[in-house]
């Protein structure tokens, strides 16, 4: 069953194809709708047979005109190290740099 997800980006052009670490929200109807996950995934503008639909939203809440597609590779811990008031995008970027 194809699922439908949503993620937030500062600007739509910030999203790049390839592997990414994201927080995603489940939009698929059912009891798990609106659950959040922190994942490592591959994202693409073009659909593959096993890909789920992913909608991008900007920080202001605008929805991208076209969907992206996501293949979840791994579920990560539900949190990212950082300070309570820190922007989550900055915390994810710093964590990715520390892994490299």
Question: What is the compact description of this entry?
Answer:
The protein is mainly beta and 100 residues long. Helix content is 12%, strand content 39%.
Strand and helix layout:
Layout: E1 4-9, E2 18-26, E3 36-44, E4 52-58, E5 68-75, H1 88-99
Parallel strand pairs: 1-4
Antiparallel strand pairs: 1-2, 2-3, 3-5, 4-5
User: What is the total tally of β strands?
Assistant: 5
| Count, helices | 1
The outline comes out as: globular
Structural class designation: mainly beta
Give the N-to-C terminal Cα separation: 34 Å
Strand portion, in percent?
A: 35-45%
Helix and strand sequence: EEEEEH
Helix content: 10-25%
Placed side by side, the strands forming the largest sheet appear as: 1-2-3-5-4
| Residue windows where pLDDT falls under 50 for at least 5 positions | none
Mean pLDDT: 89
Provide structural commentary.
By secondary structure, the chain is mainly β. The protein has one domain. Strands 1-2-3-5-4 form a five-stranded mixed beta barrel. A hairpin with an 8-residue loop joins β1 and β2. The longest helix is centred in the last third of the chain and has 12 residues. It is globular and about 35 Å long. The mean pLDDT is 89.
């Amino acid at each position: 069953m194809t699922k439908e997800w949503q993620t937030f980006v500062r600007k739509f052009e910030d999203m790049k194809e390839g592997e990414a670490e994201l927080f995603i929200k489940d939009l698929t109807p059912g009891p798990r709708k609106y659950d959040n996950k922190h994942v490592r995934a591959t994202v693409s503008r073009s659909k593959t047979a096993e890909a789920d639909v992913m909608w991008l939203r900007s920080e202001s809440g605008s929805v991208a005109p076209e969907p992206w597609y996501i293949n979840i590779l791994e579920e990560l811990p539900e949190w990212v190290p950082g300070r309570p008031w820190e922007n989550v995008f900055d915390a994810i970027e710093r964590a990715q740099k520390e892994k490299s």
